[in-house]
User: Which sequence fits this backbone?
């Protein structure tokens, strides 16, 4: 018997006993209750219950570049192989896939009963995901296919678990601040990294070895949060593969800046102007009007939006210059900057990574 027919039967029973049918809100409540009973969930009257879960977000790094450079057949072949690998690892660690979001995945640990600790299962899954991707990239290299990497973030805390939607469409999911926080943490992970919140680290009870804690600014929170990078699960002898080169977080911008060239430790008085197109923790990609030779030293000034800070103590070295129509693209690596400038740049990058728009 389908759900709609069951609700109609209940309406008939209520009508015969009371002389009137249930109202729209009452009928919706009955529908949610029946759906939860069928699904084996013991939820509250509003269709949701609160439960502590560990949420894992994994996102494929480099997918946009892959889509731009390769034919659709290659893109789909590589992405599908990645997703199949991720699914196999998640199921091996008894995780519940909540949803796929393009080239990313959201996984829950602790939703279903298990004899194993959900936090430890989530952490082991994250490490195994990175190991599996490393092995998969070996296969890609041997077969002339492009490599992809994962960025992974985990958080543990109370969430609301239930079903959203109507008779036309409904989905079982989790919502809440802790889910959003897990997603934000994943956004800060570099390729091949596993980042975890302090709550996940505390509940791990020494299950993983991590790097030193560091702070990031998260959209919607006044104070920065602390995260850690997972390095190893000692009891399993499983180590997160290290990437020889990890690009630091970077964002596309359009910030006007000025610079002076330094010759023989002397700053040349003439000031030139350009536009910063990409900003990262450790350097910029800028558009300038004249070519700058590799290894040229620069003193730069730029106003940082959102954080209301003017950087005047910023020095850098040109890494590469290429012609771009009538102008030049210049990659510059920071060589010296004050603590306030450094923290302001990092804060701006973190805000822009989370979609905060300059006013």
Assistant:
């Amino acid at each position: 018997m389908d759900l709609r027919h069951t609700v109609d039967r209940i309406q008939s029973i209520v009508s015969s006993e009371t002389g009137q049918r249930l109202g729209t809100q009452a009928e919706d409540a009955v529908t949610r209750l029946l759906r939860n009973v069928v699904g084996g969930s013991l939820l509250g009257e509003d269709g949701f219950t609160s439960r502590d879960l560990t949420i894992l977000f994994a996102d494929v790094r480099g997918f946009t570049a892959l889509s731009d450079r390769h034919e659709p057949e290659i893109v789909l072949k590589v992405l599908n192989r990645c997703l199949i690998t991720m699914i196999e690892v998640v199921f091996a660690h008894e995780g519940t896939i909540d949803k796929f979001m393009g080239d990313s995945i959201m996984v829950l640990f602790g939703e279903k009963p298990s004899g194993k600790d959900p936090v430890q299962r989530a952490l082991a899954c994250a490490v195994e995901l990175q190991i599996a991707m490393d092995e998969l990239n070996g296969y890609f290299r041997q077969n002339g296919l492009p490599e992809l990497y994962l960025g992974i973030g985990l958080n543990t805390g109370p969430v609301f678990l239930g079903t959203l939607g109507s008779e036309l469409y409904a989905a079982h999911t989790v919502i809440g601040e802790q889910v959003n926080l897990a997603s934000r943490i994943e956004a800060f992970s570099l390729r091949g990294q596993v980042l975890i919140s302090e709550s996940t680290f505390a509940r791990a009870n020494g299950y993983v070895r991590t790097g030193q804690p560091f702070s990031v600014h998260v959209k919607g929170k006044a104070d920065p949060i602390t995260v850690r990078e997972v390095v190893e699960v000692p009891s399993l002898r499983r180590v997160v593969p290290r990437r020889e080169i990890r690009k630091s977080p970077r964002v596309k911008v359009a910030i006007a800046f000025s610079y002076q060239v330094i010759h023989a430790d002397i700053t040349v008085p003439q000031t030139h102007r350009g536009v910063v197109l990409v900003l990262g923790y450790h350097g910029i990609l800028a558009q300038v009007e004249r070519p700058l030779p590799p290894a040229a030293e620069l003193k730069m000034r730029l106003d940082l939006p959102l954080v209301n800070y003017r950087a005047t103590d910023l020095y850098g070295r040109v890494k590469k210059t290429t012609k771009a129509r009538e102008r030049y693209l210049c990659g510059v690596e920071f060589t010296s900057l004050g603590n306030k400038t450094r923290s302001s740049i990092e804060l701006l990058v973190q805000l822009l990574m989370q979609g905060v728009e300059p006013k």
